[in-house]
Amino acid sequence: MTQATQSQQPGILMSDAALRHVLALRDKMGKDLCLRVGVRQGGCSGMSYMMDFEEPSNIRENDEVYDYDGFKVVCDPKSILYLYGLTLDYSDALIGGGFQFTNPNANQTCGCGKSFS
């Protein structure tokens, strides 16, 4: 498991596979971007995960920022309430592959693993 550089346990953990895949996607875009992770209303279980690249200049003062050897993972303060302790993993399996979210705060998750309550 890749640990963020921070004196305390990071609120969002990334597996080595997830970090490698995110960095490869970012490199294809040819820009120095950070990854914003959050939640929004919706999905079959009530809340759905969201993540997208964004410019580091969009990082707000109250965002949680986790540094993975120079790559920043950012989360807004409301989302971190639902995501603290989240592990983001990636699998390239043909069935069930893609990003997987393991959230210790989720009471219930949907079958696809992309939403929770």
UniProtKB/TrEMBL annotation:
InterPro entries: ATAP (IPR016092), ATAP_core_dom (IPR000361), FeS_cluster_insertion_CS (IPR017870), HesB-like_dom_sf (IPR035903), IscA_plant_cyanobact (IPR031108). Pfam families: Fe-S_biosyn. GO terms for molecular function: 2 iron, 2 sulfur cluster binding. Residues 12-114 form the Core domain. One of its GO terms (biological process) is iron-sulfur cluster assembly. Signal peptide: none annotated. Transmembrane segments: none annotated. PROSITE patterns: HESB. Belongs to the HesB/IscA family. Ycf83 subfamily. NCBIfam families: iron-sulfur cluster assembly accessory protein (TIGR00049). This is Iron-sulfur cluster assembly accessory protein. The lineage of its organism: Bacteria, Bacillati, Cyanobacteriota, Cyanophyceae, Oculatellales.
